[in-house]
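#struct-queue
[09:14] JT: dropping the first one here, sequence first, then the structure tokens:
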Amino acid sequence: MATTGQPRDMRFVPHPDYDSLHLILGAVAEWVRSYACRRGYRNELMNCSAEDVARIAADLKVNQRELASLAEKGPNAADLLQKLLVALGIDPKDLDHYDPAVMRDLQRSCIMCDEKGRCRFDVANGVITEKFRDYCPNAFTLDALFKARQEQRRARRRRREPLASGLTPMPVFIAIRCCGPMAKS
């Protein structure tokens, strides 16, 4: 090979398919990492005694096979539920505090749901509140919670609405405190 005396251009020129190949390899690596992580959770459960597994399953009100399936999904498997609740105006912490059984059922259904890709897409595009009813196994319960939340807001607004005379209703305890006890005649 003859050289012309000019320095060769040593800049890296990536292959045109490099970006798509990088994406594919990244997705495969993430799947392997996720699979290993899920197997780890299932293995942790398998390291427990049969009595411990039975106790955990009873505490969660599931059978042992369902517990193994839930454990295999990993701790973040119900994260989309949190995002959906927030999008619907429902505070997940309040729901968990005031009705833990409902929250646990919602989480269990979400964890076992096969529509996570669709849900993730709708959350990312900001259309989850319009589309979840088409595929979410929790749609009926979430609709009931959403309607109850709307009714609470309406009731709160009604309490704040002015009276026909234009006066705002004053709670009884404030009226007594401000005006004092009624004078005796």
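[09:21] JT: and here's the second one, same format:
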Amino acid sequence: MSTTVGDPTRRPSWLVLLTGFCLVGEVTAVRYRERLSVPLRWWVQATMFLATLWLAFIVATPPWLAWTATGACFAVTFGLLAYIGSALVEVTDTEFSAGPARIPRRLLGTPEPLDREQTRRALGVGADARAYLATRPYLKAAVRVPVSDPDDPAPYWLVGTRHPDRLAAALLGGSADPPHSEA
């Protein structure tokens, strides 16, 4: 099976970023990188909700309880938003990774960029339950990437992105644009 989730032999990308070199394996050129970060609107709405929650608690409970409960809710809410927005889509010379999964590029078919309506259909009535999905509810476009590995149970990957044409071009090996990095 070509899809690897949580592979312990994968080089830690934070180590490469901090030190500038890789201690394990070969360093390959990054053709495309995008962090599927949560939109600013979600952070603002969460902050306003927590302020409202604090106001309700402060008038109904002792201050220490209001501050403690609101602080706990704050930590959980912002931790969850940070976790949701931490997914990374990356294309290197040899590999494609989306979230925790990765696959060698030689096992991929021709990528198909999808617009808003096609993405909605691909996630709904046109979905295959065996497909690998790396999508987020705030991303309205995606790229469908067929998997040609007969040992892989996923017939395709559906990867949400803000730039489907750039991701598809990077997967094809071309570079109409300079390497895109949105981390």
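[09:30] RK: nice, looked through the second one.
[09:31] RK: Residues 113 and 165 are 6 Å apart (CA to CA).
[09:31] JT: good to know. The beta strands are 4-5, 30-35, 88-92, 95-98, 101-104, 112-114, 132-134, 141-146, 156-161, 180-182.
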